[in-house]
Request: fold
Amino acid sequence: MNARILVIALGIAACGTGAWAASPYAGQESREIKALSPQEVGDLLAGKGMGYAKAAELNGYAGPAHVLELASELRLSAEQRARTEALFAVMSGRAQELGQALVEKERELDGLFATKGITAERLSQSLQAIGALQARVRQAHLEAHLAQAAILTPEQSARYGELRGYGAAPHAGGHVHKH
Reply:
């Protein structure tokens, strides 16, 4: 390799390091909990879905929050609305409770690193607790989608998919509903 090519190659390589390249984490060091954005903390504390139920949502299992938003378009009966409201309240309460616990475990992990009190054993324990809570938050949301499927008719499930922009999404029974 001639000297000019070597200098160019080294210059290109240097652009990815040092003062020219900011870390993808730059600015996040000032967060209260480094691993969670303020938006993520707020969403967890509010019991929001945060994409935890995509497996259900994108496979034709409607979620109670969106069903309530689309109640008129779905022509929910009074009974369906009441059942969906109750389902949403249970899911939301459970997700908020678990979200609070998850935020606290993330805060504890952050604190262990911040105080240099982390050990391999503490790290393992902390990650197991965080992983279990993440799974329980996701379960709360997915169970709500599963329960919502029993409340809607196949036609309403198909309409829900259309209204959400999924086109001819399969309804919760696994069959594509066509008009």
Summary: Residues 8 and 93 are 58 Å apart (CA to CA). Residues 5-15, 174-179 have pLDDT under 50 and may be disordered.
